């Protein structure tokens, strides 16, 4: 009888100890969405006084692919701009670098540094805000 009581107490103790050692990490299971990849601009607009207004980007030329940002894994980027002024859907690209501290995105293109707030980042949508200006991109 004593042996059974000791085994039962030991089993209960081990069970309680095992369940009390679970992780309390708040980020457990959280997924960090990578920003790398090619993002085409699909909406632009403003957020003034909490009112967001988005429209189709005037910089996207009808009949051409969307202007884009392409973020590489080595923290370089390519900005692509389609323009039909000289020839249909002529692509002009410029290169730069980027960093992503916290919920910010900082780009350096042609020596100009710009920092954006990352408003939304999913596997298919990137929404950036710079002051009152908003840009929405999709992959």
Automatic annotation (TrEMBL):
<feature type="signal peptide">
    <location>
        <begin position="1"/>
        <end position="23"/>
    </location>
</feature>
<dbReference type="Pfam" id="PF13648">
    <property type="entry name" value="Lipocalin_4"/>
</dbReference>
<feature type="domain" description="Lipocalin-like">
    <location>
        <begin position="35"/>
        <end position="128"/>
    </location>
</feature>
<dbReference type="InterPro" id="IPR024311">
    <property type="entry name" value="Lipocalin-like"/>
</dbReference>
<protein>
    <submittedName>
        <fullName>Lipocalin family protein</fullName>
    </submittedName>
</protein>
<keyword id="KW-0732">Signal</keyword>
